[in-house]
Each structure stands twice: as C-alpha cells, then as structure tokens.
Amino acid sequence: MTAFKDLKSQWDSQPKIEVPKNGLKQIIEKVVFVKNKQRITNIVLGTTIVVLCIFFFYITAYNNTLVSIALLLMIGALIIRICVERFSIKLLKQLDITIDSTMFRHKMIDYYKKRVKIHYILTPILILMYIIGFILLLPFFKEALSIGFYNYIKISGLIILIILSFFIRKQILKELLVLKELYN
Questions:
Q1: HSE (CB half, 13 Å, CA atoms) of 115?
Q2: pTM higher than 0.85 for the full model?
Q3: Tens digits of per-residue pLDDT, 118-160?
Q4: Distance in angstroms (rounded) separating the CA atoms of residues 123 and 93
Q5: What phi and psi values does residue 22 have, to the nearest 5 degrees?
Q6: How far is residue 143's CA from residue 153's CA, in Å, rounded to a whole number?
Q7: CA 82 to CA 113: how far, in whole Å?
Q8: CA distance 9 to 3
C-alpha cells in the first residue's frame, strides 16, 4: 500500500503545466506552421519526381537497366519521403489541441520523437539513396554529353547537394525547435 501512496505522492508532486495567455492561439499557429512546412516539402519533392519521370521517359531509361536503377533510386527516395511527410501531417492533424495540457504535452513529445527519428535516421538514408542514383548516372552523362556539360553537371550537382544539405539541416532544426516549444 505504501508503494501506491508513494506513487500517488509522486504523481501529485508533478508540476502542473500552466497554459499561457494566448497559449491555444500560439499552439495553433505553430501547428499550422509545421503543417505548411511539410506541405511545401511535399510540393517540392513531387515536382522533382515529375521532372525525373519526364527525364526517365525522355532518355528512354527503361532500355538501360543501370540507368533505370539509378533513376528509380532517386524517384523512390523522393516517394518514400513524401509518404513519410503525409503520414506526419496526418499524425499532426490527429492531435487534439482541446485536450488537457498534460495529455497534449505527452502527445507532442511522442510526435517530436517520431520527427527526430525521421530527420536523423530516415532523411540521411534517403539522401544517400538519391546521391547513389545520381552517381550511377554520371558515367552515362559522360558518355552522352560534351566534356564541358558533363563537368558542369558534376560541379553543379555537388554545389546543389551542399546548398540543399544546408537548407535541409536549417529547416529540420527550425521544425524541431518549434515542436520542442510546443511541448515545453
């Protein structure tokens, strides 16, 4: 019985989470921000998929197994990312902001942990898949394009990768900061 009393005492001694003035409005604004960010990501990724699919058929990649694998790696990485983002948006929509603040905090912590796993485990794997696909295409670019244009693709690909990595990192940190603020 003392174990129950100890447990109850610990439960009662937990700090009550105070809801700040305009707290609900701030929560709604931050949740909308995260949803919009995820939607924009999906639009950008979807556009890239369309471009890659057009490229796939334009160069008749289906006639060459290695080119097909390379493009499918790139397209597959983007499709997986879109599915993950759509799933995350669905989870975020299911969060009920009218529940009590302690329950909401616990649900936000769960959501935050899932986003951390996505950003720190899945995202690097998908970026690696995309890079492998791009690298597999380089010999075909070299064979089909002039040396100048081939070098342009290699250098611009590297620059775009560096810029996108910086941009992705910045956006991830921004999103995680917003989510962290929601459950603090």
A1: 26
A2: no
A3: 988 999 999 999 999 999 999 988 888 899 989 998 999 899 8
A4: 22
A5: 60, 20
A6: 13
A7: 19
A8: 10
